[in-house]
Amino acid sequence: MNSRERFLAACWSKPLDRPPVWMMRQAGRYLPEYRSIRAKRSFLEMCKTPELAAEVTMQPIRRFGMDAAIIFSDILIVPEAMGISISYEEGGPRLDPVISTRADLERLRVPADGDLQFTCEALRLVRNQLGGTTALLGFAGAPFTLASYMLESGSPRELIATKSLQYSNPDLLKGLLDRLADSVAWFLEKQVAAGADAVQIFDTWAGNLSPSDYREFALPSAARVIARVRKTGVPVILYINGVAGVLEAASTSGATVMGIDWRMDLTAADGVVGDRAGLQGNLDPAMLFAPVSRIRNEVRRVHSALSRRSGHIFNLGHGILPSTPLEGAAAFIDAVRELD
Amino acid sequence: MNSRERFLAACWSKPLDRPPVWMMRQAGRYLPEYRSIRAKRSFLEMCKTPELAAEVTMQPIRRFGMDAAIIFSDILIVPEAMGISISYEEGGPRLDPVISTRADLERLRVPADGDLQFTCEALRLVRNQLGGTTALLGFAGAPFTLASYMLESGSPRELIATKSLQYSNPDLLKGLLDRLADSVAWFLEKQVAAGADAVQIFDTWAGNLSPSDYREFALPSAARVIARVRKTGVPVILYINGVAGVLEAASTSGATVMGIDWRMDLTAADGVVGDRAGLQGNLDPAMLFAPVSRIRNEVRRVHSALSRRSGHIFNLGHGILPSTPLEGAAAFIDAVRELD
User: In which band, very low, low, confident or very high, does the pLDDT at B184 lie, cut at 50, 70 and 90?
Assistant: First the structure.
């Protein structure tokens, strides 16, 4: 079984030899070879230059040999393609203008042919370099998470603006989520056409919602994207940070695999999700700062506690932290590779 | 039934007319009368001056008539009494020195008679002003949360230092948690002696742990504090932010009431906690930015969804946000008061 076969078997909960493994944000700042490119280029420039995006996508695969590569990109390129200006400042991204009326919403365009070509081209380059033996993942932000960046004009915190709109003008928020769903679904279809074997949807901020608000706002828009992308035939992974309280609802989204963060036992997640989806996760990213023997024990503990022997993709419960030691990352990947 | 009787009945899951209500951080920056005192005094000065602490404790009671007052204080006064220096800078508190060896740990003193008198004196002043009809809460940080502030030298984020110690030298962390447990338990006993009807323990950061790390580190030290305080006869509320993934474990802590944040359905929490404890919560603090009618509907929805008719204290799922409109806070308190 090669890595690509193993990864896809896990996505579809089919039998496999051992769980496949990759790490969220594996093309990132913990890698010296990434930092040396990043020192000379801006983050958005790297996203928009296919050769650079392909190069940093390949870096962790060359070093560690994960079962899946994930294309280097950013969730905010979709709002940008819709007409929102994105700039990076101290303390994170800044998005303008804020959507506050129906007219603002109507001005947002749904991307179409010719948009976001750089990511599709990067996927084609990586597909060529990977050959057929390693899986390749595309990704996008979920509508609710993108809406929250747009409504908060940058990195969300307490989501006061988003929730205020949700309570005062739910129809406007739903209109924004609809338009984002169309844009995200279109983009993910393009990524599949360009060679992605599977896609991950990041609804990172949806775990900040009460479950009833999650069911009313975030879930329907994510489900709409998933339904369209599933028609292409590829599996869809849905990741929510702080998923525990909304997992039951989220697992009805149609996602093939549910990403589980580290603040919930994977066995408890298994009980909630049942046979509705596979599971991805869920080592605490801070665990990679532990001694190698501790990391190896934890990988074995998680694996043996989980009663399902198929439908599990090993991953961290959140993106790898920028200050993670390389030995910790290596120990994690190696420990999963030695499982049976 | 007066407010104090109602609050204590809810803590012990005894029959009552309607759920009692208060708000975490109700003595705080959303109140103009608080801001006018805070403009002239530092935060720690307010904590350490009994007349000022008593005054801001009373402010929300006078304005809104909650069923319980919570003494104005800060969780970091316990580490300070143990010999850690606390200073407030841009971006939050700074704590020195960091504990990194057994010798550092041995140098930490457990507070004793004469320490932290200002909070006990403030409790006596508030007790006098409240009379016997409104409940009075004392509080402290839980050992794990205090340890994380000490090990991160300030407000925790990813808890990298705390978790690194947890993985590399668990015995040193456990020694620190033991010493903190003795200090916190002593302080809460003193608060009860000074007139607190109940106490809340804030293990705010424990929800950042994986459930297995929670069970090994945060839970035993919180349970040790709770066991000592329960001997005084008062109920103990345990609050953890992001509790969903660790709620089952946390509900075995011996706490009389479990605080539930807003990212979990209260009915789901009821199913997990069962008759082990009462429940406190759990309106999304951002809901107070909603129109008044929406707030009232949400209060009624939460109340009617919950099948238990005793053992529920209405509260927000986290501290009230500083920019909360006064009308939102008033609508919440009024809506609970009108329940039956």
Answer: very high
CA A161, CA A176: separation in Å to the nearest integer? Answer: 14
Residues near A43 by Cβ (< 8 Å), separated by ≥ 6?
Answer: A74, A88
Q: What Å distances lie between residue A333 and A21, A22, A32, A149, CA to CA?
A: 7, 8, 18, 32
CA A66 to centroid of chain Cα atoms: 16
Segment B254-267 mean pLDDT: 98
pLDDT of residue A233: 98
B5 touches A: beta carbon within 8 Å: no
Catalytic status, residue A102: no
Determine the distance in angstroms separating the CA of B125 from the nearest CA of chain A, rounded to an integer. 35
Query: Which domain covers residue A198, as residue numbers?
Result: 3-337
ipTM for the complex shown: 0.95
Token pair for A276? 């509705």
Tell whether pTM > 0.90. Answer: yes
Burial class (CB in 10 A: 0-12, 13-18, 19+), A39: exposed
Contact B13, B311 (CB under 8 A): yes
Choose among A284, A213, A218: nearest CA to A255. A218
pLDDT of A91: 79
The alpha helices in chain B, defined as continuous H runs, are 3-11, 32-38, 43-48, 50-64, 77-81, 102-107, 117-130, 143-152, 160-168, 170-193, 211-213, 219-230, 247-250, 266-273, 292-305, 326-337
CATH no. for residue B50?
3.20.20.210
Any alpha helices (H) in chain A, and if so which ranges? 3-11, 32-38, 43-48, 50-64, 77-81, 102-107, 117-130, 143-152, 160-168, 170-193, 211-213, 219-230, 247-250, 266-273, 292-305, 326-337
Residues B167, A263: C-beta atoms closer than 8 Å:
no
Distance between first and last Cα of chain A:
13
Catalytic residue from among B4, B25, B127, B179: B25
The tally of domains found in chain B comes to 1
pLDDT tens digits, B86-102: 998 887 899 999 999 99
Tokens representing B161 are 């230092």
Residue with tokens 């990043």: A38
